[in-house]
Amino acid sequence: MDEWLVVEMLTGWREEVWRKGVEMVEAVDADGRATLRQSLEQSCLRRGQQILKA
Question: CB of 31 within 8 A of CB of 15?
Fold first, then answer.
């Protein structure tokens, strides 16, 4: 069960990283990329905090 859960989690994260990368490439300007980067940083921090609580 643990291995299955980890594989599912990593697969989802990989897909999310790909989507975020595409968003960054398609961003119209530096301000748009900066906004996306800040949002991604906050999301990563929240996810890290959730992992530490588990």
Answer: no
Report the alpha-carbon distance of residue 36 to residue 20 in Å, rounded. Answer: 8
Tokens of 52: 């530490």
Name, in order, each residue with C-beta under 8 angstroms of 31's C-beta and a sequence gap of 6 or more: none
How far apart (Å, rounded) are the C-alpha atoms in residues 2 and 41?
Answer: 27
| pLDDT tens digit sequence for 9-39 | 899 989 999 999 999 999 999 999 999 999 9
Torsion over CA: 38, 40, 41, 42 (sign) = positive
**Could you tell me the sign of the dihedral formed by the alpha carbons of 42, 45, 51, 54, in that order?**
negative
pTM: 0.70
